[in-house]
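2024-03-11 09:14:02 INFO receiving multi-entity request
2024-03-11 09:14:02 INFO entity count = two
2024-03-11 09:14:03 INFO echoing inputs for audit
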Amino acid sequence: MSGVYYSNGIVGSFVCDSSNVQNFLDDAYTAFSTCGWTLIRRIAGSSGTSGYMVESVATPLLQKCRIRFYWDGSAVPLAGFPIIKFAIFDAAESLGFECGKIWIRSQKKNRIICGPYQFFCFFDSRISPTPDVSGQGGNDASGGIPVTSLPGTAIWGCGEENSFRRTLLPLNHSFQFGFSIGGNTQSAFASNVVQPTLLTTRGSQLLNTVPFGDLYYPVSSVQMVIGLTSAPIVVCLWDAIMVSAFFNSPVTTNADFHDWEAYSIQCDGSVTTGCLFLATKSYESSSVGSYAH
Amino acid sequence: MGYYTTTSVFQKSKTFGSTYPYGKQFIDFLRDSLVGADPSDVCDPNSDTSGYPGAGWMLVSSITAQISFTALAITEHNLFTLNGTKFEFVASGHSPIHGGIPVPLGGDNDSSLSSLGTTVNGVLQWEYSRPTTGSITFYKSTDPKICNGLVCSVSPSGSVGIWDTSTGVAGEGFTWRGGYIVKSAVVNSNPLILKLMTHSNGSHVMISDSAELMIFDGLQINNTWEILASKYQFSIRVPSNTAVGMFLIASHMKPLSNSIYCNFVSGPTGPIVGTGGGDRTSLQTLGGFYYAEWNGNAYGANSGSGSSNQVPALCFPGMPFGIANVDKLSNKIGGLDLKRDDGSFFPYEAFLAFCDSNPFLGGAVYGIRGAFWDSLIYPTYAAVETPALINGNSGIVLFGQTGSGTSNRGIFVTRTQ
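2024-03-11 09:21:47 INFO inference complete, emitting structure
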């Protein structure tokens, strides 16, 4: 199997106060800025709140992306929870799409696992036990620049219940996904669109996942297939590994001078054949661990 | 990426017919390719005098050939000719009239056959056994490499008895089941040991593990065959022919994780076309008929043994969703090439999963045990024999499948140099 694609930048896990709009926005910005993203501008939001447009670190192929997150005043019908919207753009902001929503509600916290090229915002019941809203929408936003072989614009995003925390193959037409690569930008489900699909090691007849003889499962770089059915493209994720077994609990481990955390624990175990693990800490002098507001 | 032997891959082709001498020639071709051609081999009727070194396997021993005869009615002056030496039954006080070496005619078939065995052993040093009162099997010679295909005949044909083989001429049979025991080079322990033998059916041969737990006797030798061999592994195939009976692969595999050693053979069984196995129509062909040996367990099985999740399979990245076919309805990538943005492919190791014991017996644990040498899997499709580069060396597509909603798209590429 191919090796892990390390950004060699700062990766970390950050807690965000999702009980207050501005607190959440500020905590999210702290996560991004700690990992090297730069502030492009503030985004004026509803009720005097101020969101952010941040730009990633440049990849070795000089690719950048921008993430915007702010509150435009929208709220969950009837419940009234403010909805923070995430969107990802190319560096020129000439194209982009939404990549997730976070609902603000009392006593709630979210986490962000972030690196220089990508981010994953999600709900973790261990730090936000009241209320347990893990099954609810408004918990997930993710996206970034994938590992490509060629320079040029390359961005991806998976939001809400289409995030890789909930599924390795976004299928829910009610929620968000998007990508732009090779001049092809898509953010709507269609029969000819291959939404971001993470590969897992399986037998050639696509039956159950298969461990090694010692019952440990194959670990590989994270290969993501996106594009059109006429010519899908395989790219990789940074600072991530794919373990070809399903986990439904927050497994953590240490390997290859990194801390890892199972991310895809809310997938449907009856159909999911792997688990995305994200690096939460690198044992380099410039790394940082958790940050709490 | 991948696991490679450090020496060149041995490659050679040869054409064979379907009559009985070709079985011996096919076995000799395998032996020569794996161990090295010996121009002094007196048993090779088509001996290769070039004396090439082979792929690096070792010759353990030869296997003596045999021939069996079942008597119908033995009477005086009936003749048995074994490899040109004529034996003639004569009653007490009588002399041979056909010039054969006299053999006492007994009062019945049983005593006559016993006399024949004793006489043949004394003259030719062929040992014999009497599996039943009406039959005799000759199976040993002082020549440790007794030749296959030695013609034996009986006269008159038809009434005296029946050989267990036939040259196609009435009353004639030929010695068979002789051959060689060869073994691969070893990684940790327990190299792959194979028997290469001729078959009683002159159109076929038998390749088996040393204990004959699984006999692959379905190779259709009446074709042009090519062997690709290294010191741990070989495949034989009829180029461009993916039908049943045209392919066999044997490997002392690269052991993975807790595998001390890992041996695997997949090929055809049944000397009649269509019995099964030994085809190259998909990646699943490896799980047709197979022999598996791992950490002290060895067994032969087929794709019907155990559950579908226990059939030997190549394992590589694919669709992350769906275990039952109904769940895979959303699979859009099953039949598509999966290329990087620069048009290249991710190469994958040729991992093979199989059970640690015979899945037919229950309690078997399925897992990735080893990897094929000098081979990779690419997530694309190309016809067999398509040239490919593998680790900077020339290679070919050995087998593959186009993929679908319920199967991965991929090709198994192996080195040819």
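2024-03-11 09:21:48 INFO post-check: Chain B has two helices and 29 strands.
2024-03-11 09:21:48 INFO post-check: Chain B has a mean pLDDT of 91.
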